[in-house]
Fold:
Amino acid sequence: MASRAPRHGPSWTLGELEAVAQRSVDGRIWGYIQGGAGAERTQSANEAAFLRWVLVPEALAGVRSVDLSTSLLGTRVGSPFFVAPTAYHREVHPEGERAVAAAAGDLGVLATYSTLSSDSLEEIAAASGEGPRWFQLYFQPEPATSVELVRRAERAGYGAIVVTVDTPILGSRDRQERSGFALGRPVPIGNGPSVRTPPRGPSWDGGAYELGDAAEANWAALEAVRKATTLPLVVKGVLSPGAARRAVEVGANAVIVSNHGGRQLDLAPATLDALPGVVREVGRHVEVYLDGGVRRGSDVAVALALGARAVGVGRPVLWALAAGGQAGVDRYLRLLGTEVANTLVQLGCSSVSAVDRSLIRPAPAEAPRATEGPGTGRATVLHRPDAPQPTGRPRRG
Ligand SMILES: Cc1cc2nc3c(=O)[nH]c(=O)nc-3n(C[C@H](O)[C@H](O)[C@H](O)COP(=O)(O)O)c2cc1C
Structure:
């Protein structure tokens, strides 16, 4: 598809993409993208969790090539990272989800598209070409609307249904509220006028807090989706072994350890901290993915080493889209792929499947560590000496 050319050439770093994105979008949209729930403690914790690990390079490993491809639910994909579902891409760039679809599709990177996409799921499918794509479902107040969305996704060649289970109600998002997002015109939804966003709910007035005609967000609703389709079912938003077990009992083929990028429950656990428990519980039965705070290639390697089969990236894709449309997203996905490949070479791995727990160690507990914003894609975070310190097993040969 035609693309707005990147304004500063093709060599943007992640920090530059973030900075250009901030200049490119309205302040309300920026508040919507960047904000998390409450005081954003979970959002910060997602990134901070990666600092509690170090990667141990393999000396003189002699790796000459790296294969980043892997299979996710039986589909061959180009990378162990995927595009996490995020809403309203046309608010970020006029090319909308189609730009993401074209960029990810060209590279064979799996992309997941939101119920709340600006382009319709059929338009997105057309822009994806042969690219792997999954459809993310928010339960709808009318179960028939959920089923209709699933049917449309089946017809449009989506490879899995990703049901998000952490959003019975939208998180209380201070930064988004302050920015004034959604106070202006209603944001159009490409999948049609019958599609609803998760409820914000009324203000508490000292009495009962009713959710009105909100969708039934319960295990029976998940079971109904399971029964409605033969496509693989992915459950997004589990943070505990118990929830993961329950999802598998209902028939999930994969789970995504996710706290919605820290946008739902402030003080929910960081996803990297929640990952090992979920992997222990269900990792032998289903694929386990993670999203939240993944920014650099080294983050991808840490998550894979802790048992994730793949990781999702949310905000960086939106930065890339805002900064340069399809070309921006292409730039970011290539950048991340290059970083992952670079990391793997230094770890002595020639393929994704070679990444395991032996490649990482807990970071030294005593050293406070800080990294800063643009250029790193990281907020300032401090290492917590009281953090759990899992033990590593000895390195391979
Ligand atoms: C602006 C924005 C919109 C999002 N919209 C959705 C959505 O529609 N459906 C969904 O399941 N998750 C949504 N998410 C959550 C992402 O899928 C993902 O869990 C999160 O962004 C990962 O964290 P990261 O942004 O730190 O990579 C959204 C996240 C952001 C930042």
Observations:
- The longest helix spans residues 315-347.
- Residues 1-8, 372-397 have pLDDT under 50 and may be disordered.
- The longest strand covers residues 233-238.
- The radius of gyration is 20 Å.
